[in-house]
Specification:
Blueprint (H helix, E strand, L loop, with lengths): L3 H4 L7 H16 L6 E3 L25 E7 L3 H12 L5 E4 L8 H4 L11 H4 L3 H4 L10 H14 L12 E7 L4 E6 L4 E9 L8 E3 L10 E4 L5 H4 L14 E5 L5 H11 L2 E6 L5 E2 L8 H5 L5 H13 L16 H10 L3 H6 L5 H23 L3 H7 L11 E2 L3 H4 L5 E5 L7 E2 L3 E4 L2 E4 L2 E4 L12 E2 L6 H4 L18 E3 L12 H21 L4 E4 L1 H16 L12 H6 L7 H13 L2 H5 E4 L7
Parallel strand pairs: 2-3, 2-6, 4-18, 6-19, 8-17, 9-10, 9-17, 10-13, 11-12
Antiparallel strand pairs: 1-7, 4-5, 5-6, 14-15, 15-16, 20-21
Length: about 600
């Protein structure tokens, strides 16, 4: 199934054989009983403390009032804060547990870190700030510096509470205010709250025994220890020259830092649970003349075109123009543009079948490319993902697959199980001990990490109201929780592969509602339960009308989350929100309270 003609859906392409292979691999991994994960915070051997600030920070507690509190200082919080400022909201305060801005880009500082989406589309508000990314896929320190510039540009830095964690918030019915408390002793009153803290700040590790027994060094990639490795985000890990390093995990972070480890460590052992889809990144430096000659509005056009090309709803025709014309958009087009042989085979087939077979052909091409890059056939086979495109987020790298051609790098494929345990000397995989000096967990984040209690009318907790699934309007407003907005959420909202696009649209929606409340002197707005029901029904009906092939993906928390959004895609979702504002949705679907003695 890996010869060139089969990879293009031409002669030799056997969809039934591919389907059987996928089912075989899926069943193997489903029955493997993967090692469960746990939060790093529950381990004595690893730390989740902020290593980028001086210890001992203290300040006086705040007891004041603002117009809006935005929880989170990553891109979600920064874009929301900026849009609120642009809407004329004077008192906006961001609360962030880190010592600076950037969110995941603050915490993730591992060597080789870059964005995996075109930086000219991903880095927010480039035109407004004046930042020029130095490369198509900007490095982490550039993105972090840009986040700081965003905060400064919109006056968010001077009012923010950094190194501060929200411990709870409750709605005061008598005062029509939210009372927000923090671990710094703050008790802040606010008219509105925007929840935008995301889930990529709570690192997780496999829940295996032996972690406290291991005598070597251990850390999570989101708390990279340069004191041990030497170097920086740009490389230079010279202290690893005689070290044996084990890497647990092969997802978005690991595929970027493994090549850097391979340059310096004496030995690198990679523990893989599931192979990932890896596409060449084809990174290149920014042409300053091209960048500075872009017309006004160029970034928004680029953002919208990227989403339209990559995430057009199933069965719809993507735009003819592909502004980016890069690896990500090419991947999307690869699964849509069928070879003449495959097109003939599918003549008269239903849209779902055409999509599935196009997916098969694209994945065959990807597997063939892996075989052409990785020299050792056995290693190449272990790196091939035998599942459908869309079951996991694709990764982009010009160096990850090539790292396995380095004789110091060894791949241990666990076929879905993961790490067995640690010992005093190293790691155990498939019953065999491998002695190492250092273990690095590139195992992502706890997406279900417990958050602070949010208590609405009558003391109802948001976590309890959503215990059986999110109930909302547009994934943003929830009945019983007035003046509360969820920004950057996916359930009943949307998921853009370029997350910045989603944040632009949701921040626009929220800032418009808040701005109207302030302009019209409204006390509070709260979605009606019947509006939530209509939105849930609209999502259900939209999903039923789309041709969706059964990809038979193995259970995956992230994929489940992505598929919980509005089925029409990010562009259609944004249009729904705009029409809601323009066509009387505000008055129809919200309970609007005004100060005593006033009328509409």
């Amino acid at each position: 199934m890996s010869n060139d003609s089969a990879a293009l859906g031409g002669p030799g392409f056997d969809p039934e054989a591919i389907r059987r292979k996928y089912l075989e691999q899926s069943e193997k991994r489903r029955s493997a009983k993967p090692t469960p994960s746990r939060a790093v915070a529950g381990s004595a051997a690893l730390s989740v403390n902020d290593p980028f600030v001086e210890p001992g920070f203290e300040r006086e507690p705040l007891h004041d009032e603002v117009d809006v509190i935005v929880v989170g200082g990553g891109h979600t919080g920064l874009i929301t804060g900026a849009y609120l400022r642009n809407a004329g909201v004077p008192r906006v305060r961001l609360i962030e547990k880190a010592g600076g801005f950037g969110g995941v880009w603050y915490w993730n500082r591992y060597p080789g870190i870059r964005c995996d989406v075109d930086a000219y589309s991903y880095m927010p508000m480039l035109e407004e700030i004046g930042t020029m990314p130095t490369e198509k896929y900007a490095q982490g320190d550039e993105i972090r510096a840009h986040a700081q510039a965003l905060a400064e540009k919109f006056g968010l830095e001077e009012t923010a509470c950094l190194q501060t964690q929200v411990t709870g918030m409750r709605w005061d019915d008598e005062a029509d205010r939210w009372i927000v408390t923090t671990d710094r002793g703050d008790e802040i009153r606010t008219r509105f709250v925007c929840l935008g803290s995301g889930t990529l700040d709570n690192p997780s590790i496999p829940d295996v025994s032996g972690l406290d027994e291991f005598q070597g060094h251990v850390f999570h990639s989101s708390r990279w220890d340069y004191e041990y490795t030497g170097g920086s985000e740009r490389g230079g890990l010279t202290k690893l020259a005689r070290k044996r390093v084990a890497v647990v995990g092969t997802a978005a972070s690991a595929i970027q830092f493994i090549p850097e480890l391979a340059k310096y460590a004496a030995q690198v052992i990679v523990v893989q649970r599931t192979p990932v889809v890896v596409i060449p990144r084809n990174n290149e430096p920014t042409d300053p003349e091209w960048f500075h000659n872009q017309p006004p509005g160029w970034q928004q056009e680029r953002v919208e075109n990227l989403t339209a090309v990559v995430q057009s709803p199933p069965g719809s025709k993507p735009p003819a123009e592909d502004i980016l014309n890069d690896s990500l958009t090419g991947l999307s087009k690869m699964s849509r543009n069928l070879s003449p042989e495959l097109a003939a085979l599918l003549d008269g087939a239903d849209p779902a079948t055409r999509m599935l077979y196009g997916n098969y052909a694209a994945m065959e091409k990807i597997r063939a490319d892996i075989a052409s890059i990785v020299n050792d056939p056995d290693t190449a086979e272990k790196l091939k993902p035998y599942y459908n495109l869309g079951c996991n987020r694709p990764q982009f790298s010009d160096t990850y697959l090539q790292a396995y051609n380095n004789p110091s790098v060894t791949l241990l494929d666990t076929e879905g199980r993961g790490l067995d345990r640690l010992t005093s000397k190293g790691i155990v995989v498939d019953g065999e001990e491998h002695e190492v000096d250092c273990v690095i967990f590139g195992t992502g984040f706890d997406m279900d990490a417990g958050r602070f209690p949010v208590m609405g009318r009558g003391g109802e907790r948001l976590s309890e109201r959503w215990a059986d699934g999110v109930r909302s309007l547009h994934g943003i407003l929830s009945a019983g929780f007035p003046n509360l907005f969820v920004v950057g959420g996916i359930p009943q909202a949307t998921h853009a592969i370029n997350f910045t696009h989603q944040l632009y649209d949701q921040a626009t929606h929220v800032s418009t509602i808040v701005g109207r409340c302030l302009d019209e002197h409204l006390t509070s707005v709260e979605v009606r339960p019947e509006a939530e029901e209509r939105w849930a029904q609209q999502i259900k009906e939209k999903a039923a009308g789309l041709p969706r092939p059964d990809l038979n993906c193995a259970p995956n928390r992230q994929t489940e989350l992505i598929h919980s959004g509005y089925p029409g895609g990010p562009i259609a979702y944004a249009q729904v929100c705009r029409e809601w504002l323009q066509e009387g949705g505000f008055e129809r679907d919200l309970v609007i309270e005004r100060p005593a003695g006033t009328t509409a």
